[in-house]
Amino acid sequence: MKILITGASGFIGNKIVEYFSINNDVYGMARSSSNNPKIKKVDLMDLDPNDFENEKFDVIFHCASILATNSNNKSFDLLYDNLKITEGLISIINKTSPSLVVNFSSIGVYPNVSGSYNEQSLIHPSQNFEGLYGLSKFCSEELLNFFQKDSNVRTVNLRLGQTVGEGMRKDRIYSLMRDELNRDNCINVWGDGERISSFISIDLLLESLSQIIENKEIRGTFNLTENNISYLDLAKSIIKDYGNDQSEIKISSNGNKSKVIIDDSKIKNLLG
């Protein structure tokens, strides 16, 4: 099976390259250079579709995106660049006619407001720190659905929870808590530890991708997570895995207390 992974030098993309390279012909592409010979430097925002004129892929995993940070989360470039990336992806799909496209979206399409959210819930990224990023992800879902509605390409949009594993982003709450524990043997938990977010391990994500390839009934848009967990329980689990008898948790009442529950029963019923 020939597989293309965009955004292959990022945390998720790189793990996908490693996982699927064992038994498949894998072609990775990324905006930055990589020491991995399977990853080529190709910018989806400045793509020459003719480069893919004679290519044929069975599966495309689309991981490429500009991520939201404290410095760009209110920049329109974040939205525009991610739309340009989606345009490049659609050009590749049109040239290579894959059987399956898995587009990595985000639970950032939902508001960061207490409640339970499934795929039919209101899309409201403006109520989220990563609002422009969430909006760009929702647009990517709709653009793929629009341009592929009359094709035979099976499209799966995955709205992922925070993906956890070695090599993940350092500014994510799991990484911040773990670094704080390593430094101070203590984790500070805000909002009385009541905030609830959605997390998924990279190992479960990779297993799920294998199942998605095999199960041709899976098409459309899905939430995909593993646990909806409070930040207090998250801190406890990190201490259990990496701490010791002297590790502490300090709780503050300041901070976000939103309880965002992601319902992923739709895809879990198909994955088994």
Q: Are there runs of 5+ residues with pLDDT below 50, and where?
A: none
* Strand neighbour order, sheet with most strands: 3-2-1-4-5-7-11
CATH architecture of the largest domain: 3-Layer(aba) Sandwich
What best-fitting shape do the alpha-carbon axes yield? globular
Q: Roughly how many Å is the radius of gyration? A: 19 Å
Describe, in plain words, how this protein is organized in 3D.
The protein contains seven helices and 14 strands. It is of the alpha/beta class and 272 residues long. The protein folds into two domains: 204 residues, NAD(P)-binding Rossmann-like Domain (Rossmann fold); 55 residues. The strands form four sheets. It has a seven-stranded parallel β-sheet with strand order 3-2-1-4-5-7-11, sandwiched between helices. A three-stranded mixed β-sheet has the order 8-10-12. Strand 4, helix 2 and strand 5 form a beta-alpha-beta unit. Helix 2 packs parallel to helix 3 and helix 4 packs across helix 6. It is globular. The two termini are 24 Å apart. The model has no long low-confidence stretch (mean pLDDT 95).
Which features would summarize this protein structure in a list?
272 residues; Rossmann fold; 3-stranded mixed sheet; 14 strands; 34% helix
Topology:
Blueprint: E1 2-6, H1 11-20, E2 25-30, E3 39-41, E4 59-62, H2 76-96, E5 100-106, E6 115-117, H3 131-148, E7 154-160, E8 162-164, H4 173-184, E9 186-189, E10 196-201, H5 202-214, E11 220-224, E12 227-230, H6 231-242, E13 248-251, E14 260-262, H7 265-271
Parallel strand pairs: 1-2, 1-4, 2-3, 4-5, 5-7, 6-14, 7-11, 8-10, 9-13
Antiparallel strand pairs: 10-12
Helix pairs in contact: 2-3, 4-6
